[in-house]
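Appendix C reproduces, verbatim, an entry submitted by the partner laboratory led by Prof. M.T., so that reviewers can inspect both the input and the predicted structure.
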Amino acid sequence: MVAGTGSDALILAAWNGERWSEPRRLGYSFTDLEMARQIYLSNLHVALAGLSEGATEGQGDKALVAVGVDPEGDVWATSSQMGTLDLVFVPLPPWSAPVDFAQSEGVAGLPAIASDPEGRLHVLWSDAPVPGEPGAALLYARRDETSISSGSEARWIPPAQVLPSADGRADQPALMVVDDQLHAVWRGSQEAQIFHSQAFVGDAYAASGWREPQPLPAPVALASWPDIAAGIGGTLHVVYAVPINEGRGIYYTRSEDGESWSEARQIFDAAGAGWAMGDYPRLAIDLHGTIHVVWVRADPLGKDLTQAIYYARSGDGGETWSEPLEVVEGVYAWPEIAVSGARTVQLLWNEATGEQAWWHRWSIDGGTEWTRPERVPGFRNTPGPVGLVSGGGGTAHLVGLGQDDGGAPVLLYMAWDGEQWGEREAFRLDLALEAPVPGVSAAVLPALGQLDVVFRGQGEGGEGIQPTNLWHTRRGVPVVVATPVPTLTPQPTPTPLPTSTPMALPTPTPILSLEPPPDSSGSILDLLPFLLPGGLAVLIVAGAIGLGLLRTRRS
């Protein structure tokens, strides 16, 4: 059974003699090697035909033949290489087919990506004319889900320049979604300052939708590698490095609204510690508001070879910081940090030489105590950076761009279940004539169960120029509904009862009389009540004295 004829996607279901298959949505696209572009077919029509010679025979003996039209009006035909029953009953691959959504004429930097609550994916990157040079602006693209007659379809808004630099430098972006707004930080200007701007998610495709870029507080210029995260209540936290010269070190600033920023605080004084260089800070915030930061120690005179990985944390909103912890010493790079539980922190880093394997330590008490370093199983020959994102509910997802045993490019994936890493998956990438560029970016939306990954492929150009394309793929992950942080409900304060005010009684006013006082020679009977008790007391005392004298005389 086929539905959707005449559209750009078909819905196919089949009966195998016992049950119907789940509906399978089929879209048709391919890479035109002569034009080096992706072709998408619409106005699809299908028919069943005998399997071609060499095709895989299965339960079904009929192949599916599809005919469609490309955007130029040319007609194309394609056929399946397996029977229809095998086609619809075969398990779907976990990853969607990679799509190149942005074609660069120069060298695209590592993109920053973020997902909003509606499931849209936002991508921000720099585009340099030649390798080793910074881009002159930041470009933006967005992936939307649009409704069609047969369900929904992904649609990419074409790339647009949204954050140009007045003096020709913009690179190293980081991106964050808070409610309905995008927040971006990046390195810009010839002085290498760190800038911030924000836009509503629906307006970010146009330069006019972004606020005027604002330089962030910094003690000196020549900053690098900013990172941004949102804490409880939407507070924005930013870290960056001043890698060389006086004032070199790792710095932090925060904002409640994206407009006013706190004074830059120094997390680590690299100059005071005698370091030649500190760089590449990464940032994560746990549910208790603790800020976790990791960075590298490097030697700029040693071809930027790193010397160690360090970590520090703050539990008071960045006002004070713990003493730096040396995570590992040696030639390691690309540290990544994520929070996978209320107080569980995941820390990874990459061997910069040798097998380019990945190592892992984790803490269950908010960064106080750490496990011993261990290798991430199966993650070798995987240069950084990788994508490490929290999946909610104690989980985390790790994605990297590596090679299989035959040297073919593969997307490597593992999930942390709260106690250990799961089985490694390898998804082979068919990038036509392009070679993968090291590094991936990942974003997860646990409430919708989707994990998005963006990576780069490099083709061959004339005169030594190798243009870079951006590719996207997605896979499903377990849905995790965020548990709201419990808040204390304020109890009403009892209203005090009114205190009774004592009533002042009037003081008796003495009556002055002009009459002479009464005559004091009144009758004794008038004083008898007062004199009688006193008289009796006198008689008793006198009697006692007399009796005592009589006894004395007798003696």
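Residues 2-89 form one domain. Additional entries are available on request from the coordinating office.
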